[in-house]
Amino acid sequence: MKTWLVLAIAAAASAFPFAACAADYAPIDCAKASSPAELAICRTYSLGQAEARMATLFGITTSLVAMGQRGDIGDAQKRWLKTRDACGGDVSCLAEAYRRRIAELGAVMDAIASRGPF
Per-residue pLDDT tens for 1-22? Predict the structure, then answer.
């Protein structure tokens, strides 16, 4: 098991109230999905799972980093959303976009785990 995953689980348990304050990204509400990308994510189980994983990692990472880095991660998330939405309903494009974003957020978690958030 990756060190950052263990750290993420521990952080989720202790930082949950802060994650909502730090994160400006909410997972897709499939009842309100309207764009081709959102509809494809809601119709495709693996993309829905990737969405949940990415949203969780985003919330945890933004709750564990300093304010300046939190802003950088948030800005990167906004850019990523544009990239994701440019995929439209192309499932393979969306899967690749999620793979890359999850890897980026995982790298942030690895960095935190290597030095500790304390």
Answer: 565 555 554 554 444 444 434 4
How crowded is residue 105: how many other Cβ atoms within 10 Å of its Cβ?
26
Write down the pLDDT at residue 3: 59
CA atoms within 13 A on the CB side of 72: 9
What percent of the chain is modeled with pLDDT above 90? Answer: 65
- Is residue 25 left, alpha or beta, with left meaning phi > 0 and alpha meaning psi from -120 to 50? beta
Q: Are 28 and 81 in contact (CB under 8 A)?
A: no
95: which residues sit within 8 A by CB, 6+ positions away? 46, 47, 50
Contact between 69 and 109 under an 8 Å Cβ cutoff? The reply is: no
Burial class (CB in 10 A: 0-12, 13-18, 19+), 34: exposed
Q: What angle do CA 66, 67, 71 make, to 5 degrees?
A: 120
